[in-house]
Amino acid sequence: MLCGILTSFFYAVYGIISKKVTQKGYHFLTITFYGTLFSGMTMLPFSNIHSLSSMIVSGQRTTFFILIIHALVSSVLPYALYSLSMRYMEAGKASILASSEPAAAMLFGAVLYAETPGILSICGLCFTIGAVILLNYERN
Asked: Does the global pTM surpass 0.90?
């Protein structure tokens, strides 16, 4: 429960700081680099460095390379694009649009892995899509 609360808090802080730093003229890759660096340093005490180093030494470089690609695609790229979006929209709008990620994950799970979504998942999908539509609706 505490990890979930802290995750929400730090995600909000990342959005706010990204917006402020982007307005000061910093490049989105600089923001992503420092965000990744500090999150990596924070996670370092919880990682198994011995296992990673033995993977490289023992010749499992392909597996290590796949781990690096996975980290870049699933962590660095989304945050880079999120930081880039701060240049063009409000932090609140970007956060709401980014919250559509679980809905996309549900759809990909249904299409790619033949997972059957439950009624709550479908309701969440409808609410998320509705929120994105309302967010983009311009008042006259």
From this structure: no
